[in-house]
Design a protein that fits this description.
Strand order of the largest sheet of chain B: 2-4-3-6-1-5
Strand order of the largest sheet of chain A: 4-3-16-15-14-5-6-12-13
Distance between the termini of chain A: 40 Å
Shape of chain B: globular
Strand content of chain B: 25-35%
Number of strands of chain A: 18
Oligomer: heterodimer
Shape of chain A: globular
Structural class of chain B: alpha/beta
Radius of gyration of chain A: 22 Å
Helix content of chain B: 10-25%
Radius of gyration of chain B: 17 Å
Number of helices of chain A: 18
Structural class of chain A: alpha/beta
Order of helices and strands of chain B: EHHEHEEEHEH
């Protein structure tokens, strides 16, 4: 059995059938996981100024870019092993660089609070064994973490939930859209207006405090009634909720305090985003948006978005991420105006504008290591097939030696 | 041969609110080949309720132009199979939807990926290719 790196569920019950040193077939993996493990069509090759070169020349040029930069940034590492992430943080420290990752515009707000123990949380095994009320809030797990409901939450039998979804568990979806997860939560789908999450939270706080909620009184009292009766509840917070309440995130803490039997679980996409957050938190006390300058300084100005908006970085190393694909186009011209070093197993949109590209092994397939699951459990990754590519950990180590 | 006056008439434009979501088939296509036709087919599409489609005089497979201050994309319209009350259109998160997202974050670093205001109209143009979306950013070598 091997571990899938398709998302932060890190399913470790995958069977990989290898033929001619390629994964031909997988068993148990979801569509996304299977596609990821089988690998991309276009492997990255070493290039300088988009012209093919050898890996040593790429490394040399990348080191030169870093040395010449006055305000470099290291971005990404969410699709890297914990070992590579630690190396990346060390490199950022040595470069006096800023460091940020996808969590900066994804689940960082939530994970930071979980690591700071502002929310009660639990393991996915606790959910499988004990949870009776499951709230998918702004989260379409069926499409983003497709085996969440079948491995851990709604469908499995657990120690205290022998009758699973038929009798023992209630699944609730709160969403602006009737997602595939909402379809499963029959009778318990609460459709909300876009950006309506704050109002729902306030209404639930009222209902749980014995007051009549101002918003959709009947439905909110009904929902609060289900939540109150939970023996072991979980709120799976998706980016739909995080984005919607980003300006007033602490109201979720107030709601969680009203629900003493509930745990809060971040729904994470990239397989080791939480690993990056934990490693940086351990080193600096912050999960992202840090600049090393003798000491670690945290500011929104060190987020990739604001760094690009304000043009405060003059070079960037992108490892295992594709900001050209995931950022608003209105900031991409600023990204394209500085030297970009792209470390990735595959050709990406970012690699197409990179000054230097450095191909690496696909972690969890061509190299092993560890990663942190969405609930914080450390999971081992396997090297399934042989590869001549350097790992991203080795590449970051080489860059560190070169500067 | 008569003159096709229709081509000089501007298609009516409607205000639209778009939110984004994740789609497993699109995520699979991304992992396999983010430059491939399958990924484009599953990304360059906007789905709307039957009511909204009727209001705008659109039908499934129509090509539509969506634009705002941040960008313009040409995608395919699709009637949602789900029971949607209307007023909100949906796109899978991708470089196509990101072309319409403002970079302004109020200094907080999180863009409004799921809350996009735009205008939509029928179009005869080709569906926007990924190369066209990102090609603008392909740069000349930067000397370092």
């Amino acid at each position: 059995m091997v571990t899938c790196t398709g998302c932060a569920l890190l399913c470790d019950d995958i069977e990989a059938i290898v033929e001619n040193n390629r994964i031909k077939e997988t068993k148990n993996a979801c569509r996304r996981g299977a596609a990821r493990m089988k690998g991309c069509t276009n492997r990255l090759i070493p290039c300088i100024d988009q012209k093919p070169t050898d890996i040593e020349s790429s490394l040399k040029k990348a080191a030169q870019i870093i040395r010449n930069a006055k305000a470099p940034m290291l971005f990404g590492l969410d699709n890297s092993t914990c070992e590579a992430q630690i190396k990346g943080i060390q490199l950022a420290k040595k470069m006096n660089a800023s460091i940020d990752d996808t969590s900066s515009f994804c689940q960082g707000l939530l994970i930071e609070r979980i690591l700071a123990k502002k929310f009660r949380t639990c393991s996915l095994e606790d959910i499988r064994n004990k949870a009776d009320v499951l709230v998918y809030w702004g989260s379409d797990a069926q499409d983003s973490q497709p085996r969440h409901l079948s491995r851990f939450s709604y469908f499995p039998r657990g120690e205290s939930r022998q009758r699973g979804y038929e009798e023992d568990r209630i699944a609730i979806a709160i969403d602006v859209r009737e997602s595939n997860t909402a379809k499963i939560c029959k009778g318990h789908f609460y459709r909300i207006p876009l950006k309506g999450d704050r109002e729902i939270i306030l209404a639930l706080i009222d209902a749980l405090s014995g007051k009549a909620p101002a918003y959709d009184t009947k439905k909110m009292l009904e929902l609060a009634g289900i939540l109150k009766k939970a023996e072991f509840g979980a709120i799976f917070v998706g980016i739909g909720l995080t984005y919607s309440i980003k300006d007033d995130f602490d109201i979720l803490t107030v709601l969680a305090d009203k629900l003493p039997n509930f745990a809060i679980m971040p729904m994470v996409g990239h397989y080791n985003m939480r690993g990056f957050n934990e490693a940086l938190f351990k080193e600096t006390g912050f999960v992202n948006r840090v600049k090393f300058d003798g000491k670690a300084v945290h500011s929104n100005n060190y987020s990739i978005m604001e760094s690009l908006n304000k043009k405060t970085i003059d070079a960037i190393i992108v490892a295992g991420s594709d900001p050209l694909s995931s950022l608003p186009h209105s900031v991409l011209a600023n990204l394209a105006s500085i030297p970009v070093v792209c470390i990735d197993p595959c050709v990406t949109m970012t690699s197409k504008i990179a000054t230097v590209t450095i191909p690496c092994a696909a972690s969890g397939v061509e190299s092993g290591g560890t990663a942190v699951r969405m609930d914080g459990k450390v999971i081992g990754l396997s090297k399934i097939i042989k590869s001549e590519y350097m790992t991203d950990e080795e590449i970051l180590k080489r860059l560190m030696e070169a500067i | 041969m008569g003159i096709d006056f229709g081509k000089f008439l501007k298609n009516p434009e409607f205000d639209i609110k778009i939110t984004t979501y994740r789609d497993i088939f699109q995520a699979e296509a991304f992992e396999r080949d983010r430059f491939g036709e399958e990924y484009k087919k599953l990304s360059a599409v906007i789905s709307m309720s039957k009511i909204d489609m009727q209001k705008m005089g659109l039908k499934s497979k129509d090509t539509v132009k969506i634009s705002n201050n941040y960008g313009t994309i040409i995608v395919q319209a699709k009637e949602s199979k789900r029971s949607e009350p209307g007023g909100l259109a949906f796109m899978a998160n991708s470089p196509w939807s990101n072309a319409l997202v403002s970079g302004e974050t109020g200094g907080k670093g999180i863009p409004e990926f799921k809350n996009i205001d735009a205008k939509i109209s029928l179009s005869k143009e080709e569906i926007t290719a990924l190369e066209k979306l990102t090609g603008t950013f392909i740069k000349k070598p930067i000397s370092v």
